[in-house]
Design a protein that fits this description.
heterodimer, A: alpha+beta, five-stranded mixed beta sheet, three-stranded antiparallel beta sheet, 16 helices, 10 strands, globular, B: 455 residues, alpha/beta, FAD/NAD(P)-binding domain, Enolase-like, domain 1, six-stranded antiparallel beta sheet, disordered C terminus, binds flavin-adenine dinucleotide, binds protoporphyrin IX containing FE
């Protein structure tokens, strides 16, 4: 008899390559209380209900035993971690400079940039017989794009990468290492990153450029501007959120396609399928496997179980995405799937702010790779994974073949 | 038997949203027989919601509102031709041009038209308009382009309010005259009505409530203004009559179907009733012209003028037209609609007029972002959001499950001390616009009952 809870088993590093059988088990349990008092939900309709329930908070300060260690006192939480109306106000102020109706052209304007960056990266692979799709392609692409969007100069990108890595490492809850050390390092990285972005914003205040930071600091909209701390935490959020997730979607995407040559061939032949294929990847191998920071503000009943106020609530999006009560043939990867309301970008008021950008980046990235790589093969399957069970994806994805023979064509 | 249903002759009368979606669904469901669509407008199916919004702002040309096809539909399109009658005995649709179209199954999707100004001579004055069709919207947009000194909007339902909003956004002076106590009150009740009134005034609308327009005045055939019941007079060179809709059922007179001014009655499977209340099996109804019983609302006959309802009902009707009894589906969707006006996005689920009380469950009137929840006899029957649409899914679920009203507290952004007040949905007879959601049940005195708090 195992004393490990399901959550512990999901978190265990050995589960990383294939957590899906554990999710099947989770769905059979319904709303599952763990020994530590937290609750795990993995069925589609119950996740949907909780994501739209205004009594479910994204602010961990509402936990009965709040875990504040990783939160530097002098930085307020960003909008992903607060509730309406504060969340709504901050998100709206940021959205004014990212998407419609106020900035309808921002993402379109990045399109050519993204294509150029992808082409450059594929060109760089030319002549090599073994590449790491993560380090050589999937990582640099979104980082370059988010930096361009915000207006972070190219030469500062390595620093941004360093801080981001440290912060993301702190999300990892595996017990075998030194979690306190990781949290301290992450807090430090947050402060450094906020300091850097604050200084950059100051430069843009004095000399505006054509980027999102300039737009934010010069906003003269009816609702005023973000305050200084709000601005730096929002910029930090955008930088981090726009990073690892897209990397993993591109990598999970190539892994999924390399495992299914017929699907890969089909996408080459029918490029118009790319948008629906990306949606299917968001369902089938979502980069954000679960949302770890929800808390009920009051006792909330769902799926016949009452989740008590103040407990940690984990919504396992990747499990909901495979729920046979919602998706036909849920474990089958179908790039042409139609009825596909997946949770890859979450749902409800906190649904992914960057989704239109992430979709575009991934569509462009996979298209560039499918046409740039000739007869690619996986070197090892499964590949080595990153630690995090939350932001799940391969750490490396080694590929051989007549790599890049067709690149630049 | 079931194969029979996939072939044969189907005629759809009304070639707009419901007609098109039904035709697509029929083909999706494997109907291989003859399909004919009859529509009296000359245009292929188009979308109406933009006509009182983007089109009037000049953001979308009137010519660009065509409905995107979901799939190719192999059908005969008879556009610009009106159906003038129906012969239930020979199963034929009679066309205005004398043609007779035999059918095995018929779908009635003739929707509604704008209620005209009641005085025909005044209605003919140059400058008096309604907005229902793309040609109407085109004409109004042209008038607005010409920079009228003042626009008078008669009726402050959704369409009238949206038109007033477009006028203000274009910097035009606008007067709104409404017989009821506030804009939108017929559809949304007192709390949001009062909110809408403040909103319109804050945006510079000259809003006159509790008055009726007694006459439109003209000079040499051109509109010059209007006289109001309070003795005042308004100078205006454009008047938009937004008095609600009239159901297009006249062509069904004397057919024996339960068709009249309140629509064509049908069952939850979209099959039309005849005048005795016997359900037919070959005549179906969908969209704005239909009235149907909804179990969530005590089986009262709902008549909804909602885009989403037209789509869902058309899909159910089409499915049931080509599937045998046990495979048929009920039309059970929770009603939902949206409106955008004065920079706000208003969304509704459920039936707000089916209520006796309301409470602000999230946000606040002051913020201009809120969710109002409606209850009837202690259960939740509707919710309306203003710039908070993403929460509505939650309330839809509460409506479907007849959750208790007022909703359980606990929302992060709930008001400090939420109050429950009467919903104040007035009797539709005092309104100058028809309510968007009408409870056209057989207990007319009860369907809009307002429970006042006890003294
Ligand atoms: C200006 C405007 C704004 C709107 N905005 C919104 C909104 O924001 N949100 C929302 O939910 N809904 C909105 N609606 C309502 C929505 O457009 C309707 O619910 C929808 O159009 C209903 O579709 P239908 O096919 O049932 O009817 P209709 O669109 O009315 O179509 C019926 C068709 O049948 C034709 N017809 C009628 N009689 C005959 C005959 N005897 N023979 C042949 N053809 C005939 C008519 O000419 C018409 O083309 C709006 C409507 C208008 C007019
Ligand atoms: C494939 C790539 C991506 C995936 C899978 C993804 C996934 C998600 C998910 C699941 C959420 C919901 C979080 C929650 O409910 O708590 C979210 C929120 C968010 N994402 Fe993404 N994301 C991606 C890319 C991006 C990009 C490129 C950006 C930035 C431009 C971004 C910015 C954000 C922000 C700011 C939030 C918080 C939204 C809020 O709280 O209102 N994301 N994302």
């Amino acid at each position: 008899m195992s004393t490990e809870t399901l959550l512990e088993r999901i978190n265990a590093y050995a589960s990383r390559p294939d957590p899906y059988p554990l999710y099947t088990e989770l769905r059979e349990h319904g709303v599952a209380r763990q020994d530590d008092g937290s609750y795990l939900v993995g069925t589609y309709h119950e996740i949907a209900a909780l994501l739209h329930d205004p009594r479910i908070s994204s602010d961990v300060r509402h936990r009965t035993h709040p875990d504040l260690r990783d939160r530097p006192e002098d930085l307020p939480p960003s909008f992903i971690a607060v509730d309406d109306p504060e969340h709504d106000r901050l998100r709206r102020l940021a959205m004014r400079h990212f998407g419609p109706p106020h900035s309808p052209g921002r993402i379109d304007a990045l399109h050519d940039d993204i294509v150029d960056v992808a082409r450059e990266l594929v060109d760089g692979l030319r002549g090599r017989d073994r590449i790491d799709l993560v380090d050589d392609f999937a990582y640099p692409l979104p980082v370059t794009v988010i930096c361009r969007l915000l207006g972070v100069p190219r030469e500062d990108m390595p620093e941004i990468r360093g801080w981001t890595n440290t912060i993301i490492a702190s999300l990892d809850r595996s017990p075998d290492e030194d979690p306190d050390g990781r949290l301290r390092a992450a807090a430090q990285a947050r402060v450094s990153m906020a300091g850097y972005l604050g200084a950059l914003a100051q430069r843009r205040r004095e000399r505006p450029a054509d980027d999102m930071i300039s737009a934010l600091v010069h906003d003269d909209g009816p609702e005023g501007r973000l305050t200084e701390p709000e601005l730096t935490t929002t910029l930090t959020l955008l930088t981090i959120a726009g990073h690892e997730t897209t990397v993993n979607l591109i990598t999970n995407g190539m892994l999924t396609l390399l495992r299914r040559p017929e699907a890969l061939e089909r996408l080459r032949r029918e490029p118009e399928l790319m948008p629906s294929a990306v949606e299917e990847l968001l369902r089938y191998e979502p980069p954000v496997q679960m949302l770890p920071q929800r808390t009920p503000l009051t006792d909330v009943e769902v799926g016949g179980v009452t989740i008590p106020q103040g407990v940690p609530l984990f919504l396992v999006l990747a499990s909901g995405n495979r729920d046979p009560l919602r998706f036909e043939d849920a474990d089958h990867f179908d790039p042409a799937r139609r009825d596909n309301q997946h949770f890859g970008f979450g749902s409800g008021v906190h649904n992914c702010f960057g989704a239109p950008l992430a979709r575009l980046e991934t569509q462009v990235a996979l298209t560039a790779l499918l046409h740039g790589l000739d007869a690619p093969h996986l070197v090892e399957d499964p590949p080595p994974y990153r630690h995090s069970p939350i932001l799940r994806g391969p750490r490396h994805l080694l590929v051989t073949g007549d790599v890049a023979a067709g690149a630049g064509a | 038997m079931s194969d029979d249903l996939k072939s044969g002759r189907i005629v759809i009368v009304g070639a707009s949203l419901a007609g098109l979606r039904a035709a697509e669904t029929l083909r999706d469901e494997g109907f291989t027989g003859d399909l004919t669509l009859v529509g009296d407008e000359p245009h292929p199916p188009y979308d109406r919601p933009p006509l009182s919004k983007q089109v009037l702002l000049g953001r979308v040309p009137a010519a660009d509102v065509g409905l995107p096809a979901r799939r190719p539909v192999d059908a005969r399109w008879k556009l610009g031709v009106r159906a003038s009658g129906l012969d239930p005995a020979t199963k034929e649709v009679l066309l205005r041009n004398g043609e007779r179209l035999p059918f095995d199954r018929l779908l009635i999707a003739t929707g509604t038209r704008a209620r005209p100004w009641p005085h025909p001579e005044e209605a003919r004055l140059d400058g008096v308009l309604t907005v229902r069709t793309v040609d109407d919207a085109h004409r109004l947009a042209e008038r607005l382009d010409a920079g009228p000194r003042r626009v008078l909007v008669i009726g402050a339902g959704f369409t009238g309010s949206e038109i007033a909003s477009a006028c203000r956004e274009r910097g035009l002076a606008v007067t709104v005259a409404e017989r009821g106590p506030a804009p939108l009150v017929g559809a949304l009740g007192g709390t949001l009505g009062a909110f809408a009134a403040r909103l319109q005034r804050a945006h510079g609308v000259d809003l006159r409530c509790g008055v009726t327009v007694t006459s439109l005045t003209g000079d040499a055939g051109r509109l010059t203004g209007a006289e109001l019941s309070d003795g005042s007079r308004i100078d205006a060179d454009v008047a938009v009559v937004a008095l609600g809709a009239v159901r297009n059922t006249e062509w069904l007179a004397d057919t024996g179907l339960a068709a009249g001014p309140r629509g064509v009655a049908c069952d939850a499977g979209c099959r039309a009733f005849d005048m005795y209340g016997i359900v037919t099996d070959d005549v179906f109804v969908a969209g704005d012209v239909a009235r149907f019983p909804h179990p969530l609302f005590e089986y009262q006959m709902l008549a909804l003028e909602h885009w989403g309802n037209a789509v869902e009902q058309a899909e159910v009707a089409a499915h049931n037209m080509v599937n045998p009894g046990p495979r048929r589906r009920p039309h059970l969707a929770v009603p939902a609609f949206w409106s955008s006006q004065f920079g706000l996005n208003i969304k509704s689920v459920g039936v707000p007029t089916f209520s006796d009380q309301v409470t602000v469950a999230q946000g606040s009137v002051e913020e201009g972002r809120l969710v109002v929840v409606y209850g009837y006899r202690g259960r939740i029957t509707a919710a309306v959001s203003v710039n908070r649409a993403k929460w509505l899914e939650h309330y839809r679920h509460l409506i479907e499950t007849a959750a208790p009203f007022p909703p359980e507290p606990g929302a992060a952004d709930r008001p400090a001390s939420p109050k429950v007040v009467p919903s104040d949905v007035p009797d539709p007879r005092v309104l100058s616009h028809g309510p968007t959601v009408a409870l056209t049940g057989h207990l007319p005195d009860r369907r809009l009952a307002v429970v006042r708090p006890m003294a």
